[in-house]
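user: Kindly work through both lines:
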Amino acid sequence: MQVAIPVFPRFTALDAVGPYEVLQRIPSIEVVFLGHRRGVVRTENGMLGVSCDATFDEVTAPDVVVVPGGIGTRVLVDDETIRGWLQSVHPGARFTTSVCTGALLLAGAGLLDGLTATTHWAAAKELDALGARYVPERVVEHLPQRIITAAGVSSGIDMALRLVELLVDREAAQAAQLIIEYDPQPPFDSGAPAKADAGTRARVVEFLRSRK
């Protein structure tokens, strides 16, 4: 079973690596990182590089697609290569999914038209403008359409565990969770806009502006 994770300049590392860490634990699953060209692709701050081992032309029938997000998604919303690839592989895929602002690329390809979907909360208006309907949920499923979207960054791990349940079974998903010791007990409770105070939200704005 092949899982394809597209990577592109200025993607968010955990959006891709979180699902990878879950899915590659399953013996029947092969994960491939692909993109416009082979070679190292760097994350949004340039500090981390991931090897892109295949091009879009070389991966034509993946069983699952996981599109990560990041600042780099903005310039790819109208990119004909990734749009065309998503449109061509989705009909044969078991699931087409996204993490964070990867949902913008699914929407840009017309895969989220009229559907509820989630993304990073800061990109909600952008998602709505592309024909989807943003909802502030961690994972949103449309199983008849074979579409699943996950919210910001860490939620990709939750989505990947759910994918394992759907692709294999519940026990396999629980085994993957135990292997990676995914037992969140964060020291703070500010992981959603409704939970964060004004000072925290202001710091977020400061950090996000510094990345543009």
Observations:
- The mean pLDDT is 97.
